[in-house]
Amino acid sequence: MKDLKVAALTCEYRTNPLGIDMKKPRISWKITSSGRGTVQKAYQVHVSDREDFTSILWDSGIVHSQESLHIEYEGAELKDKTRYYYRVKIWDNKDRESAWSETAWWETAFLNEHSWRAQWITPAQNEIDPLSEAAFLLRKEFNLQSRIVSARIYGTGLGLYELYVNGERIGDDLLAPGWTSYHKRLQYQTYDVTSSLQAGPNGLGIILADGWYKGNLTWENKRHIYGDRRAAFFELHVKYEDGTEVIIPTDTSWRAEVGPVVYSELYQGEKYDARLEQEGFSCPGFNDSLWYHTAVQHMPVSQLVAQENWPTRVTELIKPISAFITPSGDTVIDMGQNMVGRIRFSVEAKRGTHIVLKHAEVLDKDGNIYFGNLRKADQQVEYITKGTGLESYAPHFTFQGFRYVKIEGYPNQENGLPLENFTGEVIHSDMQPTGEFECSNELVNKLQENIVWGQRGNFLDVPTDCPQRDERLGWTGDAQVFIQTALFNYHGGPFFTKWLRDLKAEQHADGGVPFVIPAVVGGANAAAWGDATTIIPWEVYNAYGDRRLLEEQYESMKAWVEYMHKQGENEYLWIVGFNFGDWLALDAPSGSYSGATPKDFVATAFYAHSTRILRDAAKVLGKWEDAQYYETLLENIIKAFNYEFVSQSGRLVSPTQTAHVLALMFDLVDGKVKERTARELNELILQNDYHLTTGFVGTPYLCFALTKAGYHETAVRLLLQESYPSWLYSVKQGATTIWEHWDGIKKDGSFWSDDMNSFNHYAYGAIGDWLYRAVAGLDMDKELPAYKRIRIKPQFAGIHLTYAKAALESMYGRIQSEWHKTADQIELKVAIPPNTTAEITLPYAQIEAVTEGGKLLAASSGIYSIKEQEDTVILTVGSGSYHFQYANKHGLTVRFTDESRLIDVLAQKSSAAVLEKHAPGIANPPGIFAMRTKTLKELAEFPEANLTIDRVNALIEELNMIEWKTELV
């Protein structure tokens, strides 16, 4: 049917993936439909090795199911190096049958290690120093016949590589093959080079640099972590029209030399001498008579896996916004954005001119470029011109984190830099953007922008902690606190599939988990860090319904929980060993990075959290004995937690914000204790004048804990706080990414410290998840993952926000929640994709007063159920776009969700003298913390407030606040 279509076909999350090694790949699709309430009732999949489907390898038949995600191929055994075509048609709940979808495909690479013909090669060590800093050049020349129908190159490198054919760079991937736990897993890539080859002579070329494999890593200046010899492993497969095939592998017939990349390190930067270029080294006919021999390096191929992650690429080009001379006399360009990537520049200069670029994130308080927080990372690029006209260059095997670039040696720079000759190339894993958020507060919109830029900068093949200093490591704690925000902003399926497999590979035999993955620094087994083992696969499952990955990671998840289970004498508490605690919390004792919340409190809380996740994962996977076992373990942990960390009167032993947040978010307290914990958390925020004190552990959950406990107003005011410490403090300071420290730059312009002060550190950006789910109200029912059942529940916050919108391109299609609120009306626009349903909550509404598309709810199509609870309407709807409108009557009751509402409005609308006249002591009444969700009449019953109805009426009359009565929502 014309209005029912199957679209956006993917295989293993990708559109037409080239070179996969899955023996049973999974297929997903989306549905487009013009009508509301569309649900798939059946599907059919065809898979063929012919584009015209004249030969069907797998016909699923008509399968009566709503499933449209991760449908596993169940046909004949797949072959190496073969393209498979597939198509899908569906039937829906309205007795409509779609046409076949457009044809999509996947192509296999090698499905077992024995298919490889290549050898690992490296320059002969008696001819070229294997420890040379210069990048190696490798080349091979060969002849081909005519009538080439297809050609693929499969391969990888130990170190980083670039691949060339007949003088052309192949592919747009950067920093290939990426960073994995090389001893156990090494990705290889597949390239279609059909159009690059020709009948007759051809040439292949490889540039090979150190990279993560053997280059300088960590603040400890470690080198050769995985090995001390670079090597290349490639083979070219050419198919002719007659069906024959020729293979050109790496072997000792290849020749070697060093080239213009005389030095390249991830932290230190790159030095490129254009005078040493071997022009045409990958072309046929190049004279390599003076080049050196290659030798076989004996290494296994069993660890080779086809590319799993999104490739790293240039994803955006940025032009500098200005150039200036600093007080110290340096020439600096400003990119206007703290970015991760490289500068590409062009120059015309005499031969041998040295041009140096030094990269940094910020300026100091005097306006000079600041390099102190880089520690031992130079972030320096040096280019030496060949002097043959206009030259263009960008570094090959390094990246920088920067906004400002100091330029030295550029011709005539004293007369001003030609900004048009400089371009910032933004580099990160080329993930598909999926999420959007905006609201009525422009500072919050800038915060969201900073969150996204922080993710882009730190999702460069692994989820790094920072992209600029001598670290850039895959810290597990940072990744897990940010995971939900990350999976909203970008499609993280392949990214985290790859990283979780490395985590599993690096996990210790006792179940312990290293601090960083890949594991290149010492240390393991910290609470909230090791819990990435359970939290991340669970959240990936929730976001994408990826049951296979959950199954794959299950034993790793279980091993981590059992590791915690075995710690100390009490098996239900984790009170021994090293833990980071609430890292970088503001309530940390002097000289410590760990907050005041006891580390054993934090550890036991996460022990419970991971156990709950493991229990739930066991249920999803049908492991019922495990589910029951971990249910019992969880109950015992919670009992032990309450005995150890909650007093008999119901008070937490730790009076910190983070302690209260964890107890609430991980459901460790219940009943009156839970109510008290929530109330006291709110009081801790109010007593601190709406400022937080939380660190890495508490911050991601802080606003969620307040909102879920009924203190959403407090959470919003916490978000909107502009003074230190707050999310918006850095925004007001000009930040364009998320800072590592709440006061990375202090009010006087000085810095927190040089030691550990990244200005691109995404952890505190985890507030994004609350913005999307709570403020905009776009959430899911986790009983049906991947947003199969959507929850739209916008939460308004007084006069503070009047508009919010979130949109997500889910596995099923686009979801949107957009609300506007005025003094008179509330408006909600919702989009629900086909093959899903949604529960929509309309706050402060009555059924008879709500319209959808101008009609009463009962007359609107696509709405399956309608119910009213107090002043809330709850709807169940099918797919489609909906537009709800209703009168904003909430303000007429003048309801105060907390004392801050009253104080705020009175303070804004009145003078101190008027306040004192009508409401003496209102700014700090002793009993005001007891007042919640009270009307004015109820509020008058609290004598501690020293406020009566008469006083309020007099105040309103004197201040002419009649309009305020209806504005207050």
From TrEMBL:
GO terms for biological process: carbohydrate metabolic process. The keyword ATP-binding does not apply. Its EC number is 3.2.1.40. Keywords: Hydrolase. Residues 147-316 form the Bacterial alpha-L-rhamnosidase N-terminal domain. Residues 326-428 form the Alpha-L-rhamnosidase concanavalin-like domain. This is alpha-L-rhamnosidase. It comes from Niallia taxi.
